[in-house]
Amino acid sequence: MKDLETKFQAMRKSINTTEEAFRLYDALPVVQIEEMMGMWKGSGFPTGHTMDGALETFNWYGKEFEDADHVHPLVFRSLFGTLFKVNPALMPVRLATLIPSKPFGFLKYIFLPLRFFFQAWSSKARVRLTEFRGKVTATMVYDQLPIHDVFRRVNDKTLLGCMDYKGMGQFFFFVLEKVEP
């Protein structure tokens, strides 16, 4: 397992394309639903996708898995440090798949004060086992969007996610790290 972690960290710094990311992703073990429970801190995994840095632009914190039927796919941090959940159906996800958002960092200062218009007061996804790239693994299924986030395990506290968004030409990768309560 330690070899896998070391390989992941080294490859994370050198990967620049979707093909390279899939070579790593495909080598990782699957994730069971029970392993997903809890709060996860998210970070980017750049591959040249237009969404690289998009979530971070808006102060993305991560994801929260309460149980298999109650998942909060987008958790953000306010300017004051409090966490809040967002309804992905109200976010410009399709636009982010077309236009790079990194140059628009200033949008955070518009989004965060207006967050109440985007907030979710109930879960907006669930987690199921699905087959993806020849392996059955934990997958977060969005309630209102044609998006599946499919996970592979780096170790007990780190996951590599692949966003499969129907109609998006390129897969989007990200990392989740378990937050201890």
UniProtKB/TrEMBL annotation:
Coiled-coil stretches: none
Domain (GXWXG) ranges: 24-78
Residue stretches making up the DUF4334 domain: 123-178
Leader sequence residues: none
InterPro entries, per the entry: DUF4334, GXWXG_dom
Gene3D superfamilies, A to Z: GXWXG domain (2.40.128.580)
Protein's name in the database: DUF4334 domain-containing protein
Organism in which the protein naturally occurs: Leptospira ryugenii
Lineage, top ranks: Bacteria, Pseudomonadati, Spirochaetota, Spirochaetia, Leptospirales
